[in-house]
Amino acid sequence: MELIQRPRRLRGSETLRKMVRETRMDKSSLIYPLFVKEGTGIEEEIPSMEGQYRYSVDRLPYELERLTKAGVSSVMLFGIPDHKDETGSGAYAQDGIVQRALMEAKKQFPDMYYITDVCMCEYTSHGHCGVLCGHDVDNDATLELLAKTALSHVEAGADMVAPSDMMDGRVRAIRECLDGHGHKNTPIMSYAVKYASAFYGPFRDAAGSAPSFGDRKSYQMDFHNRREGMKEALTDIEEGADIIMVKPAMSYLDIISEVTKATNVPVAAYSVSGEYAMVKAAAKMGWIEEDRIICEMAVGTYRAGAQIYITYFAKELAKFMDEGRIG
């Protein structure tokens, strides 16, 4: 048989396979989520996320040092306050947990890039992502508080803010607030395409942010919908979002691909807590090869079109890149 086309020609050696690789990754595209909480001397493992921890402000620099040594230069901070109330006042307090964590982290690791999650759910007594009117989240009343939160983060040292609440109009409200206070160059990474997903369970355990009643389906997206995701992404770009995020990652690679094709801004994907927990649990049982699964999940996300990967496996992926196992 005389074959003209032989795709295997380009698979004959490791060097050649890397030369023609279509999807390339870099440590600079990794973002590591970090949980900070009130108190001192705290570095407590999260039961549902083996290998992930909640840190008090004084212990946070130790983890930042480990990340720096691994080559991970960007983190996303989530706050866990002691006090919660109806309006989530801890989210925008000048001495709030995220604000204090930022100030301390900036002193000790000024070259690290700090992104903050802007939401109310960790700070409200009811666990919803905004202020309530009866049993409904009041969209417009929440916007002012989200803008105040974003501004307080930037004034404390955040390099970028990432609103995750899914309120209509919140990107515009934050953009106008930041611009009005002289922060025109601070980027916004919008959780634009955020589905109401069962994959968030371990995160809610980690952050203590589960709603005390109902669910978040009136503001997070129905996972049956694709075109709605495009509408959300395009609307947020019109309002001033600089980066668009799709969340979760693993079950939404089609959405990542479509958002990448439909927009002209960088696209991030968040490999969420449930994805992480499933990998750790299956690996613990000996059912999967953890390292290979971590790599395959990451490459799949980049291959779908994401340029930024938010992942609890950031340190491991950085190591695998150094070893040449992916990249």
Could you explain the architecture of this structure?
By secondary structure, this protein is an alpha/beta fold. The strands form two sheets. Strands 1, 2, 3, 4, 5, 8, 9, 10, 11 and 12 form a ten-stranded mixed sheet that branches. Strands 6-7 form a two-stranded antiparallel ribbon. It is built from eleven helices and twelve strands. The model has no long low-confidence stretch (mean pLDDT 93). It has helices at 14-19, 60-70, 97-108, 139-156, 170-180, 201-207, 227-239, 253-262, 273-284, 290-304, 314-322, and strands at residues 30-37, 43-46, 49-56, 74-80, 113-118, 132-133, 136-137, 160-163, 189-194, 243-247, 267-271, 308-311. The protein is globular, with a radius of gyration of 20 Å. Strand 4, helix 3 and strand 5 (113-118) form a beta-alpha-beta unit. The longest helix has 18 residues, at 139-156.
Which terms would index this structure?
single chain, 327 residues, alpha/beta, 10-stranded mixed β-sheet, two-stranded antiparallel sheet
Task: Let me know the largest β-sheet.
Answer: 10 strands, mixed
Give the proportion of residues in helices: 25-40%
Derived from helix and strand composition plus strand pairing, the structural class reads alpha/beta
State Rg.
Answer: 20 Å
Terminal-residue CA separation = 36 Å
Shape: globular
Which segments are poorly predicted (pLDDT under 50) over 5 or more consecutive residues? none
Order of helices and strands: HEEEHEHEEEHEHEHHEHEHHEH
Count of helical segments?
Answer: 11
Proportion in β-strands: 15-25%
Number of strands: 12
Round the mean pLDDT to the nearest integer and report it: 93
